[in-house]
Amino acid sequence: MKINIKISRNAVYSVVLILFLGLSACAQPDGAAIYQQYCATCHKADLNGGNSASLIDGIWQFGAADNYRFRNIKFGITHMGMPSYGAVLKDNEINAVIKYVNDSEKNSGAVKPALVKELETLDYKLNVETYAEGLEIPWAIDFLDATTALITEKPGRLRTVIKGKLQPEAVKNTPTVLNEGQGGLMDVAVDPDYKENGWVYLAFSHVLEKANKGEDRPGAMTKIVRGKIVNNTWTSEETLFEAPHELYKTTRHHYGCRIVFDPDGFLYFAIGERGMKDDAQDITRPNGKVHRINKDGSIPADNPFVNSANAIKSIYSYGNRNIQGIAIHPETGEVWATEHGPFGGDELNLIKAGNNYGWPVISYGINYDGSVLTEFTHKPGMEQPSLYWRPSIAVCGLDYYTGDLFKKWKNKLLVGALKYEEVRLLDIENEHVTHEEVILKGQGRVRDVQTGPDGAIYVVLNDPGTVIKLLPKLD
After folding, report:
1. CB crowding 138-174: b at 16 or more within 10 Å, else e
2. DSSP 351-377
3. For the ranges 69-83, 293-307, 316-330, 346-360, which has the lowest average pLDDT?
4. Beta-carbon neighbour count of residue 402 at 10 Å?
5. What residues form DSSP beta bridges with 422?
6. How far apart are CA 428 and CA 36, in angstroms?
7. Among residues 206, 245, 253, 254, which one is catalytic?
8. Over the chain, what is the mean pLDDT?
9. What's the number of CA atoms in the CB half-sphere (13 Å) around residue 371?
10. Distance CA 110, CA 444 (A)
């Protein structure tokens, strides 16, 4: 006997879809099982820490963001005894472990410990005060006067703190920024002659309205403007630097950027190589460089490449990977900069006119996948760093201490570190670092550090969106 069964096409599709979803679900790595197999020996089965740190206490010494955790698992933290798992775990398995840890941390109810109130350094005992909180990814701070500060938030807001109170409304009419990847509103700098001229300077990621021919999305590049703040509104904007639009990049990382002024009134800023490392060696392109302009945007006549054909005339140095810290020595006027290395090889450099700082031809770092970036750490005609950090500390924010509250720290260099959540204090003599001390640790990702007009040290923390101030503790 024959039985004819007709199955509709939709029914077939439904069966296929169910099978596909079932197989896809089965194909998803089991983060909990992978953790127990590879991680529990050191971090314990309950993630509370054994031979190594707890993973659910809210403290992430080597970076809280998922991309940091991914790198740490894949490539290891060799100086801390953590092996690399890139050879035994696939990327999706690592991501499954990260998700399991994130979910476990969330379910544990762990809250990052409150900010410390007191610290002790070699020279001083410190009080730690909260200056501003509730900010969204703060990036930089500068001061209009002794009672008023400006703080940038990466999504594109310029905030004001007046007499210790964060104003609820952001400054209106500030430039539109590309808040994507590492881009956004970055630095703010107040003109040294602000009382006379009222100028405030901003650095941000600027995006084209449409993609250049042959590109899949609009390009972006770091842009520098200045303006005035009147009745909490950004006015009188002037563009000081905007690269030729055909040189904009479709990548969304390595924008730089800091703005500083030297005693002669020149304005310096840095643009990262935008992920196009070979561009750092090409003076016809703006990325991977330190730039110097006059405060009105004009080009100084003695800039090193002002007479070079096709060069970007504002370039002051080149071969720089991604500088996010620049400071001017208060006595000598020297320009110092910290730049992110790749996997290892963060650098402190004394920036001099026309010098080549080597990226990517020479480096003390390696590629993020563990492969060799370059076999060279030295090359003729390329500068050596005054100091390099290996492993990287993710340097960000730089300032010479110029106040009077910490007299023993006068003219010493304050260095911020995102990854290790640190502020370091460096002694420099004859262009070389002679001593390094960690004076703040574990309070959040340090994006900026500045001497305030009151002599306190102000520290901008990306996470938890707070600015703190360090003061000497009075006996």
Report:
1. bbbbbbbeeeebbbbbbebbbbbbeeeebeeebbeeb
2. E-TT-B--TTTS-S-B-TTS--S-S-S
3. 69-83
4. 19
5. 417, 441
6. 47
7. 254
8. 91
9. 2
10. 16
Per-residue pLDDT reduced to its tens digit, 67-124:
778 888 888 876 566 788 888 888 898 898 888 888 888 888 766 667 899 999 999 9
Provide mean pLDDT across the span 162-178: 98
373-428 pLDDT per residue, tens? 999 999 999 999 999 999 899 999 999 999 999 999 999 999 999 988 999 999 99
Residue 20: predicted pLDDT: 47
Is 291 part of the annotated catalytic residue set?
Answer: no
- For residue 466, the Cα-to-chain-centroid distance in whole angstroms is 16
Contacts 24+ apart (CB under 8 A), 151-157: 151/188, 151/460, 151/467, 152/185, 152/186, 152/187, 152/188, 152/202, 153/184, 153/185, 154/179, 154/184, 154/185, 154/186, 155/179, 155/184, 155/185, 156/184, 156/185, 156/204, 157/185
- Residue 24: per-residue pLDDT: 47
Structure tokens belonging to residue 212: 């250049």
Question: How many angstroms separate the CA atoms of 52 and 230, rounded?
Answer: 53
Q: Provide CATH code, domain 118-472.
A: 2.120.10.30
Is 30 in contact with 38 (CB distance < 8 Å)?
Answer: no
9-108 belongs to CATH 1.10.760.10? yes
Q: What is the pLDDT at residue 110?
A: 65
Beta strands in 309-406 (DSSP E): 315-318, 323-328, 335-339, 346-351, 387-389, 395-400
Q: Where are the domains of the chain?
A: 9-108, 118-472
Kind and range of the H or E element at 74? helix 66-75
Separation of alpha carbons 223 and 291, rounded Å: 12
